[in-house]
Amino acid sequence: MQGWIKLHRQIVEWEWYTDANTFRVFMHLLLNANHKEKRYKGILIKKGQLLTGRKSLALALDLSERQVRTALTKLKK
């Protein structure tokens, strides 16, 4: 993985900053999103997108699938 992201200091004021699981899932998605277009099995994954699932997120973050699902639900709101 290469590159960097910009992160504004005001993120500490974000409503999910103090929710450890939700913030962790958000940061993982942000840090792993494509920075340029790629193809996966004929599907174009655009800049800013990430191909993943609850199981793979749970394994990567050492969380349960339910914790990941809850965090994603919060982020969707």
Describe this entry's structure for a reader:
The chain has 77 residues and is mainly alpha-helical. Helices cover 43% and strands 8% of the residues. The chain has three helices and two strands, in the order H-E-E-H-H. It has helices spanning 20-32, 54-61, 65-76, and strands spanning 38-40, 43-45. The chain has a two-stranded antiparallel sheet. Strand 1 (38-40) and strand 2 (43-45) form a beta hairpin. Helix 1 (20-32) packs across helix 3 and helix 2 packs across helix 3 (65-76). The radius of gyration is 13 Å and the shape is globular.
Compose a concise summary of this entry.
The chain has three helices and two strands.
Topology:
Elements: H1 20-32, E1 38-40, E2 43-45, H2 54-61, H3 65-76
Antiparallel strand pairs: 1-2
Helix pairs in contact: 1-3, 2-3
Strand adjacency order, main sheet: 1-2
Separation, N- and C-terminal Cα atoms: 29 Å
- In helices, the fraction of residues equals 40-55%
User: Mean pLDDT score, rounded?
Assistant: 94
* Structure annotation, total helices: 3
* Elements, N to C (H/E): HEEHH
State which percent range the strand residues make up: 5-15%
Structural class: mainly alpha
Major β-sheet annotation: 2 strands, antiparallel
Instruction: Give the uncertain stretches in residue-range form.
Output: none
Tell me the Rg in angstroms.
13 Å
State the shape: globular
Number of strands: 2
Question: What descriptive keywords fit this protein?
Answer:
single chain; globular; mainly alpha
